[in-house]
Give the backbone structure.
Amino acid sequence: MSILISGKEANLGPLSVRRVLPHRDVRSVGPFVFFDRMGPASFEPGQGVDVAPHPHVGLATVTYLFEGAIRHHDSLGSLLEIQPGDLNWMSAGRGITHSERETDAVRNSHHKLDGLQLWAALPEDEEESDPEFFHIARDDLPVIDDAGLHMRLIAGEAFGKTAPVPVKSKLFYLDVRMDAGAQLLLPGENQEAALYVVSGNLRIDGDLYEPENFIYVPPEEIPDIVAQSDCRVMLLGGLPVGYRHIWWNFVSSSKERIDKAKADWAAGRFPQIPGEDDIIPLPGRSTG
């Protein structure tokens, strides 16, 4: 049976975030252990997103925008601005540091931001891999058009297509636009799946879902998915990677590895971002 999950609001400075995963009823979907809706938010000149350098281990951050722009900068030296429809995929492996800010041109104007950030837990044998960063432009993502469906494959494999970003586990992540009355099949057999309604209305096995609803579909289910109106849905899932410990920005199959990451960040042993000296301190620890 499908499960409707309600996210909880969190404020990250001026940005409102609705956190859906992890949830008490559904801790993960395939390898995806974290799902945040960022915005929609509107900023006056001088306001905006300014997330100082912070660390990650054991996961890949997956950033996808509907509106606005964010400048990504990391300890590998990657520095670029993500635009709506682009993909930023950052595989932390054994450890990476990055910041998420806005350019002066964006920040000094009235602007909006809306998008998603997901985390995909790395398989256990990849948790200590070298950190990597990939940016895939919108026009380089595979498109699938079929019977009232217009789908863009962001990551993984689905419907006979493979996205260009290298992934380390079996997964799929798609941006799906459905005409009213269109039907959607899930792309993978025996894989967990979830649908997040961005706009419009959707019926799953006759039940009506609306924007910001997140619906988990267990691997044994073959649901009847029909667009009640023109709608936009994010479709994600894959094979589970097993239980993961999650603390702050760290994900690992080992609690001891989480403890090591805490100690390393507190002691300044993570790689640094060129030209950025400010950091987000370890939660519960004073910077003074």
